[in-house]
Write a structure and sequence with these properties.
Radius of gyration: 17 Å
Order of helices and strands: HEEEEEEEEEHEEEHEEEE
Organism: Hyaloscypha variabilis (strain UAMH 11265 / GT02V1 / F)
Protein name: Concanavalin A-like lectin/glucanase
Low-confidence stretches: 1-15, 21-25
Number of helices: 3
Oligomer: single chain
Strand content: over 45%
Helix content: under 10%
Bound molecules: 2-acetamido-2-deoxy-beta-D-glucopyranose
Keywords: Signal
Distance between the termini: 13 Å
Number of domains: 1
Length: 257
């Protein structure tokens, strides 16, 4: 999929990051880098669901993860790009080559939303964010299915979830989410050395009758490699459009051929 430059400003504004504390006293994160694609039906179309399944890449060969933050996540952000609700997979919190699932909120306040959970390369993590319209609260549910490495380590399938109220945000006061993101995030000396990150069955539901955002999406950077299958959609309730991408792959930091 050829990204269009006209959509780039919205990605540049994603300055909010997991593990970032957005107070004036804390210096900005060094070398904060994103490789992401996003799906949005525009600033007025609120998201009502965002579902995706990630197959975890191999662990990074990096021997010292402490200053080398490597992460990737599905998440949703507000139209003003000033908050993100995300299920981060990060290398932080354990030994070299390990991944952890960490639901997180950024930024007013920035905080973990659950205990971090060990996951293994080859596991699949299905993540479903869904909005309860009467209360405007979000359900965040995940299901982890071990792959060969997780099985060998004695991991069993598990799931979890919680209800999140975005009105706790002291800046956005619960402004709706309008952008769905699938992104790699690096900080400090972290590099993208863990190979392709593959998502499947990506579903975004938005309160709109417009469908072009689906057929034309997702949008992403033009200076690195990613690919996505063609978006297909269905409509319901007269005002909801559900968009489906069979796969979205963040391939490599190398420039496209
Ligand atoms: C930022 O990246 C540069 C180049 O890789 C590296 O030398 C530097 O140590 C990094 N800064 C921090 C704080 O990790
Ligand atoms: C969904 O869109 C319709 C039509 O634009 C609007 O009337 C309605 O308030 C929207 N619902 C929400 C929850 O934003
Ligand atoms: C779609 O419109 C109906 C009728 O106006 C409304 O009850 C419903 O909340 C709307 N859906 C969303 C997601 O806003």
């Amino acid at each position: 999929m050829k990204p269009t430059l006209s959509h780039l400003p919205s990605l540049i504004l994603i300055l909010f990051s997991f593990l970032t504390f957005c107070t004036a006293d804390v210096p900005p994160v060094a070398n904060l880098t994103f490789y992401g694609v996003w799906i949005t039906a525009g600033p007025d179309a609120i998201l009502t669901k965002f579902e995706s399944t990630i197959t975890l890449p191999p662990g990074s060969p990096d021997p010292s993860p402490s200053n080398d933050v490597q992460a990737f996540w599905p998440g949703m952000e507000t139209a003003a790009d000033n908050a993100v609700f995300q299920n981060v997979i990060t290398n932080q919190g354990g030994g070299a080559g390990e991944w952890y699932l960490l639901p997180y909120y950024c930024c007013n306040p920035a905080k973990p939303l659950a205990d971090q959970m060990r996951v293994w390369p080859g596991d699949t993590v299905k993540n479903v964010f869904s909005l309860d319209l009467p209360t405007m609260k979000w359900y965040n549910n995940w299901v982890v299915t071990p792959g060969p490495q997780g099985n060998a380590a004695g991991q069993v399938p598990f799931g979890g979830g919680f209800v999140f109220d975005p009105s706790i945000d002291t800046l956005t006061h619960g402004a709706p989410y309008t952008g769905a993101l699938l992104t790699i995030e690096l900080q400090d000396q972290g590099t993208w050395d863990f190979g392709a990150v593959e998502w499947s069955n990506v579903i975004v539901e938005a309160n709109t009758t417009d469908t072009e955002w689906c057929s034309n999406g997702p949008t992403g950077g033009s200076n690195w490699k990613w690919s996505a299958s063609k978006g297909t959609y269905s409509t319901s309730d007269g005002n909801l459009t559900t968009c489906y991408f069979a796969s979205v792959v963040l391939e490599s930091p190398d420039p496209p051929n």
